[in-house]
Fold:
Amino acid sequence: MPSAVSAQPPRREKPRETRLRALDGLRLVAALMVAAYHYGGRDGEVSQAWGSSPSLQFPTLHELFAYGCLGVQVFFVISGFVICMSGWGRSLRSFFASRAARLLPAYWAAIILVTAVFALPVVAYKAVSPSDALLNLTMLQQPLGVDRVLGVCWTLWAEIRFYALFALCVVLPGATRRRVIMFCAFWTLGAAIAQAAQEPLLNLVLMPEYAPYFIGGVGLYLVHRDRRDAYAWGIVVVSWLIGQHYAVERLWHAPEVQAFSYRSSLGIVLVVTLGFLAVAAIALGWLSWANWRWLTVAGALTYPFYLVHEHLGWVVIKVLHQDLGIPSYATVLLTVASMLLLARLLNRGVEDWATPLLRRELAKIPRKN
Structure:
């Protein structure tokens, strides 16, 4: 006769929630930070759109907008988390298909759209040459020294290098906790050596100034899997310590009268810290209550918005502020809204059908002849 214990049906574990909607919301927050920087936190070509320096358009907020560039560092932490999560248990083919299908359709559409708009006679901004525009479709314009159609695409070049490192070191041999920890440890050490050696090839591959954010995000995914993992927490803390150093080194300068982009070192450290803490809160499940469906839509809009907001935003700002005389703050809000609407159109009109189609085609196993 079977015992009472053996007669009980096997206990099924509750499936892990695969969609972290709070992470989608944080993506959009980071994108809006970058937009605030591009519209009101820096000089350059956006001054041409406003007709004067944004520091004059936003006498109070321009100093706050200047910190928006740190949204890129927050993006990189999120990317480390997401890539480790999506690459775990996947084959190299599936991982490549997923990443390519996620990045390319909206990117191609943005390249074509921005090139076409900048080629219009009524638009005063200089367009890249047809040859350079075509090369931009490969995403290799940065290493090849070609003019960029999209100003923000330098971040995609950093992302691609991260994907390649993670694919070769973790996805190809198979993701395990031990392998991911070793990957983070060796990349951290290798990046430090590259910085000390000042060897261009090592710097290009190991990206010392960006590595701690990606590595920190990977560590936070390990925390998401096991919040008591001391090694994972060690990776996160070391990455934060190195990351805040690079952010201050790259973005801080001594205050001076003409320094539009002046940021305090404490402010830079605070923004980087808040970025790490926000992803940590999501990893620990503290924001699981933020499970609204609209956050998924927000996450879907983030990438196309990020691609088009800078260059096309200049055109919209020029029309709204200089041509129509709309006040600065209303112009910013309307420009953000118009770029979000365009992102929605790109998401529905391009990504919704092209992303699954490209993923399916790239994931196919070719037939043997």
Notes: The chain has a mean pLDDT of 92. The CA atoms of residues 153 and 307 lie 8 Å apart. The two ends are 57 Å apart (CA to CA). The chain has 16 helices and no strands.
